[in-house]
Amino acid sequence: MPPNSRCIGDRKSFKRIVWQYFWQTHQYCRLAVLLPLISAFVLGLTFGIWICQLDSRAASNGNILPTIYVVTATYKRPEQRAELTRLCNTLARVPAIHWLVVEDADSPSSLVADTIGNCGVLSYTHLYVATPEDEKLKSTEPYWWRPKGVRQRNLAFEWLRNDPSRTGVMYIADDDNTYDVRLFDEIRATRRVSVWPVAFAGGLLYEGIRCAHGRVLGWIVAFKPHRQFPLDMAGFAINLQLLHERPAAKLAYKVERGFQESLLLTSLGVRQSDLEARANDCSRILVWHTRTAPPKLNNVALLAERGLTLPPVIGHV
């Protein structure tokens, strides 16, 4: 027998005896160990079930949370599906929303229908209306030369007004912007018109809004600072009550560049004193005015010259 084996065995036996003594003869020791574990398990299970039920009810019918109507105008281009998918991945994480996708087309496309129907947003409407030919961007014009999405957004306004009992908040979300999901918590609390700063807008890292105690005091912008509301379209949300009260309010084609936002808000009878400062008194960036670079497709002809074609894919690119 190794010289220390008896000592090791004695120590193990002593520990086992002590453990059995406390476990078998002192019930309060068992209770002291088990009760906190059981209580924590039951409490965690109950809380988890409650949260799941709350989120499920909010997402399914909006009875708990005000519904956010997200208006997205979209048009045909190679990156359209990618951008709609990215936006949908954000919206799918937000409860109690209805996505209004308005396609710039004479008829609905299967690409848009398939994308919004299979990306996770449970409540949506697919509308379509084409931009007049004389208002379409020409190939020789820069991307900012003509206002985009005017007729499509106006159609969404009409759809929202069709039901006078419809309540909630409207937000115009372009499919190429980038959104933090926390922005929608700010949007949902809108009583009339809420505002926040937008990054990469107006030729600045972000266009500034001077806010204090939930009120807008002024603007810090470089692009046309004389605008009544020097905001980006992604920088505000509107309570549907205003749309119902002002049925003639809409966007227009014949408007000076940068004034669409001011046109819409003034036609709704909004004053600066009505604006509600969100995003921690306009000090937090929750939306970025991004643009996806068009994909380089200059080798399509080269592939054809070599007698090659890409293999088919399921659905749309």
Q: Could you characterize the architecture of this molecule?
A:
Keywords: Glycoprotein, Golgi apparatus, Manganese, Membrane, Metal-binding, Signal-anchor, Transferase, Transmembrane, Transmembrane helix. Pathway: Protein modification; protein glycosylation. The structure is a single chain. This protein has 317 residues and is α/β, with parallel strands linked by helices. Helix content is 37%, strand content 15%. The strands form three sheets. A seven-stranded mixed sheet has the order 3-2-1-4-9-6-10, sandwiched between helices. It has a two-stranded antiparallel sheet with strand order 5-11. The chain has a two-stranded antiparallel ribbon with strand order 7-8. Helix 4 (110-117) links the parallel strand 2 and strand 3 (124-128). Helix 3 (80-91) packs parallel to helix 4. The longest helix is centred in the N-terminal third of the chain and has 35 residues, at 27-61. The protein is globular and about 85 Å long. The protein starts with a helix and ends in a 12-residue tail after the last helix.
